[in-house]
Design a protein that fits this description.
281 residues, alpha+beta, Beta-Lactamase, Arc Repressor Mutant, subunit A, 6 strands, 59% helix, elongated
Length: 281
């Protein structure tokens, strides 16, 4: 039986080949592994500044959201003008985290000076510190980036296929919640969720209930009704339109569920809200 390469060793070997910082994050955006442990020198200059740290976090969140939506590698330029790439990591066929390679400087005339100018504007350090940080950045030819991306994708697939990524039941429950809140307008079934997340119906309901205290069905109904109430309060859309736009198959079913959980019909709710609004005015 061949020896399984650990996650730490994969990151070390990628770094040895490329010299590029490699980070692994869970679905919540928390770092679970990094090589080198200390991070890149230029990264330390950026993150010691509160504004730079906030912008880095925003870049990461937006990149993770794109990967979560598209389920493929995402290459982009960060707020400092450096190239970064995020790869999806899977666990038994479901998204479990992200692998990020970062701070690659485009190999072209003027690129280094552009980054240095941004660093000066943000007062990230002395001229010597900024120059040293930019000097240590890995230069990459955009025409050759495809080869590097392919190498990283192979490593990401290895991590997935050999289940080297740590996954918790809590992380899965949070991802189910995220999925429900992003897709509640669509036709969601328990069978479809099980296929997507790679669990049986019993196990998926169990881990979700352990984390939320309720079932997947009731949670989804709550999300749909909460958004339906918002539409009834803030728009003049018909009851039918509100129902369909919030994932209900027809108006009658919507009205029954609304009455069951909210205690009145959608029309009564809207009239009550209008009366309360008029009284406050």
């Amino acid at each position: 039986m061949s020896e399984i390469i650990s996650l730490e060793d994969i990151l070390k070997q990628l770094y040895a080949i490329s010299g590029i910082l490699i980070d692994v994050y869970d679905l919540e955006g928390h770092s679970v592994a990094r090589y080198p442990d200390t991070g890149a020198y230029f990264c330390s200059l950026v993150t010691r500044d509160s504004q730079g740290c906030e912008r880095c976090g925003r870049d990461n969140r937006e990149a993770f959201a794109t990967v979560r939506e598209e389920h493929k590698v995402h290459i982009y330029r960060c707020h400092m003008g450096l190239y970064e790439a995020v790869f999806p990591l899977y666990h038994y066929g479901r998204l479990a985290g992200y692998m990020m390679t970062g701070q690659m400087l485009e190999k072209r005339e003027g690129a280094a000076e552009e980054v240095m100018q941004k660093a000066r504007q943000m007062n990230l350090g002395s001229e010597e510190e900024i120059a040293e940080g930019v000097k240590k950045l890995v230069r990459i030819d955009l025409e050759e980036i495809g080869a590097f991306v392919t190498m990283c994708r192979v490593c990401a697939d290895y991590i997935a296929n050999h289940h080297q990524f740590p996954v918790t039941a809590t992380g899965t429950a949070k991802e189910i919640i995220r999925y429900l809140e992003e897709h509640y307008r669509e036709d969601i079934t328990l069978e479809g969720l099980c296929r997507w997340f790679g669990y049986s119906k019993t196990r998926l309901n169990q881990l979700f209930h352990e984390y939320t205290g309720t079932s997947v069905y009731r949670y989804l109904m709550g999300v749909r009704l909460t958004n339906a109430c918002r539409s009834l309060r803030n728009s003049e859309k018909s009851i039918y339109s509100v129902a369909v736009e919030n994932g209900f198959s027809n108006q009658n079913y919507f009205s029954r569920q609304f009455k069951k959980y909210i205690g009145c019909t959608p029309g009564e709710y809207r009239r009550n809200q209008e009366r309360e609004g008029g009284q406050k005015a």
